[in-house]
Amino acid sequence: MSFSRKIIIVMFVLAMITCAPAKASTIEHCLRLKFYPPPPPPQAVLGHRSRFDLSRIVCRDVLRAVGHSIRSSGKLPWRYLGALCNIFEDNEQKIEGYIKDTYKARDLDRLIDGRSCAIIRKKLHPISPLSLPRQ
């Protein structure tokens, strides 16, 4: 294989990795960082903080995508609600309180669109035909 082919393959693989859609775990990770920020590292206290923080950049983009989804559809995305269900351990009152506080929602029912954690889990993790019991 020639050198130029190797470079093309590497570029293709890198493009595929960076274009991967955000998973629920990414959204959940970003929300957990927002709720429970980690303590600053010792270098940050001394003023030697790195300006490049990949986690912060990814989280900003993920939450920006959530905001765009809300503006375009008027509803919260399924994976965002699924992450909230995981973080708040399926407590509907805590989820509704967070959504009211965060989005200043006058129309909470429109944002949630009647979706509970049970409905979200069923939608995000459907039962495959292979896992159904045989009759």
Automatic annotation (TrEMBL):
Signal recorded as keyword: yes
Name the record gives this protein: Prolamin-like domain-containing protein
Superkingdom of origin: Eukaryota
Endpoints of the signal sequence: 1-24
Alphabetic keyword roster: Signal
Higher taxonomy: Eukaryota, Viridiplantae, Streptophyta, Embryophyta, Tracheophyta
